[in-house]
Amino acid sequence: MDPLQPLQQFLPQVWFFILGLFLFLYVLLDGFDLGVGILSLTASSEERRSILMTSLGNVWDANETWLVLMGGSLFGAFPLAYATILNALYLPAVIMVVGLILRAVSFEFRENAERKFIWNITFGLGSFLAALGQGFALGSVFEGIQVDAAGHFAGGIWDWLTWRSVLVALTLIQGYVLIGSTYLVLKTSGDLQKTHYKTATIATWTTLAGAVFITVTTPIFSEQARNLLFATPRIYIFGLIPILGILLVGLLLRSLKRQEENTPLIWTFLIFALSFIGLGFVIFPNIIPPSVTIYQAAASPSSLVFMLTFIGFLIPIVLSYNIYNYVVFRGKVVGDV
Amino acid sequence: MSDFFSDTVALSRIQFALTAIFHMLWPVLTTGMAIYLVIIEGLWLKTRNLDYYHHARFWSKLYVLNFGIGVASGLPMAFQFGLNWAPFSEAVGDFFGTVLGFEGTMAFMLEASFLGIMLFGWERVPPVIHFIATILVAFGANLSTFWILAANSWLQTPAGGVFVNGKFVVQDYFRAIANPFMVNSFLHMFFATLETSLFVIGGISAWYVINQRHPAFFGRSLKVVLALAIAIAPLQIFVGHLSAEQVYHYQPAKLAAMEALWETVPAGQPADWSLVALPNDQAERNNWEVKVPGLLSYLLEIKPALGNPIQGLKEWQPANRPHMVGLIYYSFRIMVAIGLFFAALMSVSVVQWLRGKLSPDAIAQQKWLLRGWILAAPLGYLAVETGWIVRCVGRQPWIVYGQMRTVESASHLPAGEVLFSLVGLTSMYLVFFTAALYFGSRIVRIGPNLELPAPAVVGQPKLDPAQHERDHRPAEAQQ
């Protein structure tokens, strides 16, 4: 056996894990930013909207940066996947980028504008479009991307638009609204907080409905998923995830009913983590489902080692100062409501 | 024109160029201004003069406006290599993607995370921690410059590996990063961001002084700017000259385009420097031009006659040399002229400073000098953009110099799809450019808040973490 073979397997796996971590942190952290953004469309007064945006002011930028980290690292670690996936998802990616641009500039322009109406709309709409683009992207990666023998994109420009990717996109938006609501429960007080206990409860049910529908329909419509899911030993993992999921949703609903402040966000984090682990198991060892594996798409081992040397040791540092940022700004955002 | 709209490669190139040109406008100010903010905050901590604190607060408003748009416009930059340049991404991802990954992890995240503390943390962390946060924001921003310039320099002078079957195989990462252009290119851009920011700050300060709004306060920032520019403006000219010499050695076709030089000048002859010309790409000559005899030989070799020949554009097949010679030629001249103007303005200002004409009582009488500074404020941007045009249009037809052609690097997308994103992004850029100008000038018109008290946390012990402290940001944000 080639002595390098274990290494050639191990390195792409490590990078699959790191990219998964970056993407997970992005979905979790910018997820609540985008959720708050979508919720801001329903804010009943300018003061409330100000508080919503203020609660994100110091973190949205760092949160969004996880996506840039993910993009850059995907480019370096799996160049083929970076190129093929972005080609396949050209339109959803453009929708996402446009949404994120609108969201970002709205923060600064609204701050300086006397008439804030336009920038309120662009803020909410930008957050919505970004979530929508991400939902479509997730849905179509989940669904599979058509490639030729070399792993290049070989499908059409509308491949990403199917009824199931629409469903995934809608569910992701619900999930973002849920995590945004629980973040606001943590960061606000008074009537504003009460409002978001309500939105969190509603979003829990709508997210749950979407998730159940996706979980049930995936094995029905995809033979590949069926083969994957019902083979041992994966069946045990996939059997466990829905059970844990239902348990966490129960805990979340209980904490919302009891009007606890910190736990709703924690349960939501765990629900996201669980879904993400489930997703990881469905996709692994592919990076461009259904046919290109991480081993085929990986950069050279020396490249992966070089990246790992520099990025690997930075991950704990990056995490530490991000946490420090949250600690400095802990507590409630207050204002005249 | 109908050909153009159905040409995916041309549309992708336009989209990349416009995105890069638009994106560059914002980080050029924030990376340079971050260093200025470090100095201002350091001066405040050292002297405890409240003016410096108010300067820090005032300029960070302009800073954050630019930062927001910079982050926003950076996203299409991060993704469009995969979106529009998939064959390129796949071929060079092992190195180029790695460097972009480094930029994100090492630099961008640092900047983005500590920005929150720098902007909103005045009352929340002790002054030393705040100062460290400001330093880390500046460090992160300039580290970004380093990685981006390392990546771009590698496109200009690829090193550290070989192309095998069209795919770049890295043999030595450190040599690839430390490619021949890297040091000078980084320094040139580092000075460019700093110089642009200094002249923006100086120009706005001059505007306040000439309008008699807080002249003493803004006389102070003008002097801080001047003290830094004394070193930066001449250094930039020197580094720029070294960069041009490197182009002469490594990318002779680009140098020929920069000089609109069609015919080779053989060794032993003086080379003239063209002052104005009308280059004609089809006829392979300049329709007319005005030359300074022998100057180019002096610039390149400090000799009246050349030791080595300078190759003219005709030495290369049309398919192997840059086109749009007029654009490259004039962009280069505009950039150089601005660099020289900055150095001249700086010299005159220093002389006046030494003569005591910039003292708080006398400064407002220096009308022409102040007008010069106001004029200089937007010029740094123009120099940076024209410099990048020379660098990247002059590199054509190559995306990786001598190795991979731009036309072979574009994604095979339907033209309509690229047209859609091009129109969408460009219209957003136009709206945001206008809005940023409007809001930026609004911040300047409103001016600094000189009533703002020093942060309360100074000298006090840190708040007990067990206390559920309140967040004061809405009130703070409105100041």
Describe this structure as you would to a colleague:
The complex is a heterodimer of chains A (337) and B (479). Chain A has a single domain (13-280, 312-328), classed as Formate dehydrogenase/DMSO reductase fold, CATH 1.20.1630. In chain A, helix 1 (5-40) crosses helix 7 and helix 1 (5-40) packs parallel to helix 13. Chain A has a two-stranded antiparallel sheet. Chain A is globular, with a radius of gyration of 20 Å. Chain A contains 13 helices and 3 strands. Chain A is mostly helical and 337 residues long. The longest helix of chain A has 36 residues, at 5-40. In chain A, strand 1 and strand 2 (292-293) form a beta hairpin. Chain A is 79% helix and 2% strand. The model of chain A has no long low-confidence stretch (mean pLDDT 88). Chain B has one domain. Chain B contains 16 helices and 7 strands. Chain B has 479 residues and is mostly helical. In chain B, 66% of the residues lie in helices and 6% in strands. Chains A and B meet through helix 2, helix 3, helix 4, helix 5 and helix 13 of A and helix 4, helix 5, helix 15, strand 7 and helix 16 of B.
Looking at this protein, list some descriptive labels:
heterodimer; A: 337 residues; mainly alpha; Formate dehydrogenase/DMSO reductase fold; 13 helices; globular; B: 479 residues; two-stranded antiparallel sheet; 16 helices
Number of strands of chain A: 3
Tally of strands of chain B: 7
Mean pLDDT of chain B: 87
Report the sheet-strand fraction of chain B: 5-15%
